[in-house]
């Protein structure tokens, strides 16, 4: 249920309502707007008697049942956008961030080269996989811990925050030691023990949509993370599996405005995986941004033809530079702010 406080409610009255929410076995989530404070009481469906009980408390204006199955992700609980802040800028609420880098960390030289040029061209975050979930057990699986160390070195040199994928609950603590944000890949989007584990970590989470997942299922996966106390979740539309074979996956651009109308969480687009070919990445990226995305996560490699994974869809440096120039102009036309590192820092 959602408890709407009166405009004139005092801080003491708000605190007393929060304590009462906890006393009856619900989890409180406080959202402070410009005019009113909203308190979400998260738990099983409230009884009419319980709603009447809260309605009678001092300072309470109204008690409303939450209709959505995803409670903490819903705009009913928080009617304004969540904005996440990194050392290089913000994402959400009109702020756009681009994360870029190689699909996989293959070597120190390759990763540092990529980190240097993605910073030079304006990316606000470095992406790179140290652990790689692959369809084939014989494909490159990543460098593991050594890959994490390389990413940490790239962060020290460039100042870019790092996002990398975590594959199992047992890896969360290890990866969180090195990464600034944890990525949950499409194949693990409904790995509920993993979602709960990253929910207990104190790091932002990039949650990718599963390839056969509805948007409501997507938000329910986010709810697993939020329900463990981690409200720093970014939803990533990365393409879904349809009957179409021309592209690797079908980028559901419509997911962006739909999600933005359902949830306060930032929404990003991954144009690389649905494209499957580097010459389609830029149009898909711009389409996602034009649809309202708060960020992009893009694959780029110093020598894509030699990449050990996803070679066909990784951008050359000059293509990434072209993408960033267009993103910068589009963001300005849309009245959005593009997060970017300070060169030379």
From TrEMBL:
Keyword Manganese: no
InterPro entries associated with the record: Aldolase_TIM, Class-I_DAHP_synthase, DAHP1/KDSA, DAHP_snth_FXD, DAHP_syn_2
Domain DAHP synthetase I/KDSA: 90-328
Listed SUPFAM superfamilies: Aldolase
Entry keywords, A to Z: Transferase
A Pfam family this chain is assigned to: DAHP_snth_FXD
Organism phylogeny: Bacteria, Thermotogati, Deinococcota, Deinococci, Thermales
The keyword Transferase appears for this protein: yes
GO molecular function: aldehyde-lyase activity; transferase activity
GO biological process: aromatic amino acid family biosynthetic process
Entry protein name: 3-deoxy-7-phosphoheptulonate synthase
Domain called DAHP synthase ferredoxin-like: residue spans: 1-68
